Amino acid sequence: MALLSTAFLAACAEPGGLDVSGPAPVPTAAAVRSVQVCEGPGRPPLRRPAVLDIAGAVRLTGLRWASWGGPVAEATGDVAAGRGRPLRARVRLDGLVEHEHRAYYGRASVTADGLPAARRAGLSDLRLFVPKRQR
Fold first, then answer.
1. Where would a tag sit more exposed on the chain, N or C end, judged by fewer CB atoms within 10 A?
2. Digit-coded pLDDT (tens) for 18-60
3. Exposed, middle or buried, 24 (CB in 10 Å: 0-12/13-18/19+)?
4. In 3D, which of 96, 103, 77 has the Cα closest to residue 88?
5. Does residue 104 contact residue 35 with C-beta atoms inside 8 Å?
6. Beta sheet of 87-94, edge-to-edge order
7. Domain spans in the chain, listed from the N-terminal domain onward
8. Cβ proximity of 65 and 90 under 8 Å
9. What is the chain's alpha carbon radius of gyration, rounded to the nearest angstrom?
């Protein structure tokens, strides 16, 4: 059996042998899992959303993602600031929660110049909805 395996493998090689050089490719985080964010129960998971509603209390629009898929995702966009006009904001998602081949961001922070102190503090550590594991 060993002789047959060796003969079979030798038949697959290029003339002159195989040329193996350099480090083995490392799969990226995106290749290993799909990273998503959820707005809430019954809502579809999103990747790099242009609009994101967090817990029904914070609406982010015009999001442009500088990074996505790693431990931290960062974007710029606008945050609704009560009845006034939207303010430019920086958004950070982190706290990955992994479920088999998917991962979900579990926390968000939003910073925007011009927000009242109480509103600013309320946007510094938001919990995001993470779907339960499928059984």
1. C
2. 555 655 544 454 444 799 999 999 999 999 999 999 877 789 9
3. exposed
4. 77
5. yes
6. 52-54, 58-67, 73-79, 87-94, 107-111, 126-127
7. 29-127
8. no
9. 23
At 1, which amino acid appears? M
For 1, 12, 131, the CA distances from 54, given in Å and listed in that order, are 61, 55, 14
Q: DSSP states of the chain as a string?
A: -HHHHHHHHHHHSPTT-----SPPP---HHHH-EEEBB-STTSPPBSS-SSEEETTTEEEEEEEEEE-SSS-EEEEEEE--TTS--EEEEEEEE--EEETTEEE--EEEEE-TT--HHHHHHTSSEEPB-PPPP-
How far is it, in rounded angstroms, from Cα 35 to Cα 71? 9
One-letter amino acid for residue 134 of the chain: Q
Say which residue the tokens 């710029």 belong to.
76
The pair phi, psi for residue 11, each rounded to 5°, is -70, -20
